[in-house]
Fold:
Amino acid sequence: KNTFGWCKGFLLGFPKMRSLFRKNSFALYMGALLVLYLTVFGFYVSSSKQSEIEKLRNDIARLEKDKAQRISSVLEEAREKTTEREREREKEREKEKEKEAEATGKPGNREHSALAKENELLKEKLLELENGLEDKKEENALAAAVDGANNNNDPESKQPETRTKSHSTSSSRTSMKLGAYEPVKDEWDDETAEQRRNAVKAAFKHAWDGYRKYAWGTDELRPVSRRGHNWLGQGGTIIDSMDTLIIMGFDEDYKAARDWVVNELRFDNKGDVSFFETTIRVLGGILAAYDLSGREDAALLAKAKDIGDRLAKAFATGTGLPFAQVNLRSGRASPPGWTGGASILAEVATVQLEFYELAHETGETKYYDIARKVMDFLEPRSQDGLYPIFIDPHGGRFTSNQITYGAMGDSAYEYFLKLWVQSGKSEDLYKRMYYRSVEGMHKHLVQKSSPSNLVYIADMRGRSLHHKMDHLACFAGGMLALGAEDSPSKEKDLEVARGIAKTCVEMYKRQASGLAPEYIEFRGGHDFVNGANHNLQRPETVETLFYLWRITKDPIYREWGWEIFQAFEKHCKVESGGYAGLHNVASPNPPKDDTQQTFFLAETLKYLYLLFCPDNVIPLDEYVFNTEAHPFRIFDKQDA
Structure:
């Protein structure tokens, strides 16, 4: 500032000195050089100070990050030491009990315990036999009813099922009971398919039992270190697994999970949570379990309404686009700092299925209205049906030019289609949004690799393509297959769906471990190279294989799915219980990452199980899956 002021004064005073400098051109030249020197010197000093300030800021941020990491590490060590001390105390208490029993001369506690256990086993066996007889009676009654219905030609006896918006135990829709999802053999359900689905079922039980033994009540299991871990703080694995437990017939495990949710899970003591993750996992998981278990569990529906009311406060913005975070205790919602205050496309447009289902089950249209407003806002603002991934929730302006079917964009396009399906294909808004987005995808993003012509969906930044594909984008093959029946470009959609499936399977086949990396980058002459070598047990490829099998019945999709399952079994299984992700899929013996993702039970193993099931298990003309693979019933057209 001082330098600039001096120069300004010098130049303003220049006319008075003009006569002096006219007589001495050398002095004029030197004066100009002096002004130039001082100006440059001033800018240099200013920029140096700015650099020093920026460096200090970076140092402070780094120190704060290191401090947070050290605090987290200390807390984790403290938790581990506390847990270890508890185990030691428990062992000491057991030893004291044994000593006390020996001192009092009582009959051996171990013998007594063994007899008690044997007695309990006998009781359980007797109960199983009684339940088996009851089940048999129900099966016979059901068979008689079916025979009667088949022989009855009276048209008045064939009443269409309807779904009411109000919760009622006397709903005209048939209630499902636990264990009602037993596969019914069809022409494709051979011995091999049965063996494979049973193997997947056994894998799920291994994953669930490990969680139940070492991590019950926490979000996820760390199978290598045999402990639990929280990041959502809402018993993530329990809620994410409930509908899978029902579908696979693990009734007792489901009842334990349901009781925990109803009796132990509280939302009024939770702080900031991810609005998106809590909606798709917690709200979606509870609603799916409520539906599949018969729609008569009022306590479960009340729990869904509780979390729905708390999440709904995230929509309180000028545009109706929800914030990314919401405090479940206070109701305060906020955007994430790392996006510059912007909301994320996939997060604002991937919650509608869940809120519509909640509105449908409770009869309260407020849940429908707040979620629908987002789609009404987005629909006229697309770019050839596509949307950038960051959007300002206050003014509705897109704050980036990146378009992707991978992370932060993916499930928005998935929900355009699935909302139309959920409505009984009666809501034309979603039909328009979906098929317009598919047209834009074909026009701008679908590419083929060299030399193998592998189909992939590139990212776009402005007008430039980034030839990268996340494993997350592998869902698009299943999406295109599901929407192909009514598509104006049906053959093209199915061709691209098949191509994406092949590319995503190649992501597995070309790794030494047989499991896919997190994302790949396409390079001319080499097809693709790994972008990140870790594997998080993601479901998107087997999801696409499931849809393509159901729609085309091409056996190759079952074969590919079985190969992927075998690779999970070989490299991810932890013998003490659970499955872990991998650090490096390019290694033939990859190290494990010590995390069993909740979606491994909710999605990956569920889609693999359904891949080998007959079509009567969660039929696609009756159910639509949310992005966490929680199935919701399709609405009747008259009440959609």
